[in-house]
Design a protein that fits this description.
- The chain has 15 helices and eleven strands.
- By secondary structure, the protein is α+β, with helices and mostly antiparallel strands.
- The strands form two sheets. Strands 1-2-6-3-5-4 form a six-stranded mixed beta sheet, sandwiched between helices. A five-stranded mixed beta sheet has the order 7-11-8-10-9, sandwiched between helices.
Length: 415
């Protein structure tokens, strides 16, 4: 059980405090409710661009990294389809440095054309290196718009195309910032050897004066039920043929989310998993195969992906995957196998919350989902799953009309 206290400032900033005197450092996690799904479809990649811009100096602090390093701290950030998250760790005695510097970034960035141009070039280079010039790098640029036709999960966090970032203007960037980077669109968690009183005092001192802002009112359209099989075949200069099968699944707050997650573990969590044992070790159709969920807040994807061995066709590979899926839909899983994946999940989940950083991040994420205390119910939700639940959810997800398949050809490979 992770204990915490919650406050909400007058300007809408939510503050969570987890006190743990055993932690030698303090974690400071600031989550903004803005990810790539909040972007204009004609201006994608902005949320990720801001992850870079936020380190380019703010109104009163021209250099972000130096004060953090001088305070003995470390910092980083990440962007997802749902959120942008900034986090630091530093000694308790220097905690106020985090409040000072993060509140100044929320107050306003040091917007300049020069800073924007520098960061645009960085992001465009990242796009080219990681997505366009990397083997298999464009998979999500292809698979997401195949699976999603309405919901903005149809593009990855990097954006649809480098041109969207290249054409971004300073006025557009400012508008995006003030429409999303606001105290009433953020959740702060401080975890470590701190008291709720001292955190609340510092939060009111540094974040309290920042005004409540009108948020950019983007409506997130719900993805309609997929009713037809979708396929796409491409050829690229890569070493091996690969297949990617994406099925629509529920979102994070749905009762079946944990069951769906366990299904991915049954199929592909370690070398004792079903897909590895059957399709890699025994039949040799794939050199490797994986099943995972995207873990999105809204309705996400259950993805099965495999790299084919030579002399096997896409049709053979797909038939083999479908056969394994049919087994999990029709044959009850044994108590031993189900308990094995449950225990492995519980161990990994509990171990993952050992650090102050992970506790602070998770408390923020679950607060965004509705209540930080949901974090304390996760393990129980997995423990309650039955083999009947596994079959029921598998039957619902794994249908031909719910699947989008990408056939990724290695050029000059004979099929």
């Amino acid at each position: 059980m992770i204990s915490f206290e919650k406050f909400t400032l007058d300007n809408g900033l939510k503050v969570i405090v987890h006190s743990d005197k055993s932690m030698p450092i303090v974690a400071f996690n600031l989550l903004y409710n803005v990810g790539s799904k909040h972007e204009d479809p004609s201006r994608t990649g902005f949320a990720h661009l801001f992850e870079h811009l936020m380190f380019g100096g703010s109104v009163n602090v021209p250099n972000y990294d130096d004060p953090i390093e001088q305070a003995g701290g470390e910092n980083n950030a990440f962007t997802s389809n749902d959120i942008t998250n900034y986090y630091l760790t530093l000694p308790k005695e220097n905690l106020e440095t985090a409040f000072w510097i993060e509140s100044d970034r929320m107050l306003g960035l040091a917007f300049s054309q020069k800073s924007l141009d520098v960061q645009k070039n960085v992001v465009i280079e990242e796009f080219n290196q990681s997505y366009l010039n990397q083997p298999y790098g464009d998979v999500w640029l292809l698979l997401r718009p195949l699976a999603y036709k309405v919901h903005p999960y149809q593009w990855p966090t990097i954006g649809k195309t480098p041109e969207h970032i290249a054409n971004a203007t300073l006025s557009e960037v400012k508008e995006f910032f003030y429409g999303h980077y606001a105290p009433n669109n953020a959740i702060l968690c401080v975890a470590g050897d701190v008291s709720a009183d001292e955190v609340l005092q510092m939060a009111q001192k540094w974040f309290g004066p920042i005004p409540y802002r009108e948020l950019y009112g983007k409506t997130i359209k719900k993805e309609p039920l997929q009713t037809e099989k979708r396929t796409l075949e491409v050829s690229r200069r890569v070493p091996y043929n690969s297949i990617y099968k994406a099925y629509h699944m529920c979102g994070r707050t749905h009762n079946d989310y944990s069951t769906t997650d366990l299904i991915s573990d049954i199929l592909s969590n370690g070398k004792s998993s079903r897909l590895f044992q059957s399709l890699v070790k025994q039949k040799g159709i794939f050199s490797n195969i994986d099943a995972f969920i995207t873990g999105d807040n809204d309705e996400g994807l259950f993805v099965i992906t495999g790299r084919l061995n030579d002399n096997y066709s896409f049709s053979q590979a797909e038939e083999a995957i479908d056969a394994e899926i049919e087994i999990i839909k029709t044959e009850p899983i044994s108590h031993y196998e189900l308990n094995k994946v449950k225990n492995k999940f519980e161990s990994n989940f509990t171990f993952g919350l050992a650090s102050a950083n992970e506790k602070a991040l998770n408390l923020c994420q679950y607060e965004l989902l509705g209540d930080a205390n949901l974090l304390n119910t996760v393990v129980d939700s997995y423990r309650m799953i039955t083999n009947t639940d596994i079959q029921r959810v598998a039957k619902r997800i794994f249908t031909t009309t719910n699947c989008s398949t990408l056939y990724y050809n290695a050029e000059n490979t004979n099929q």
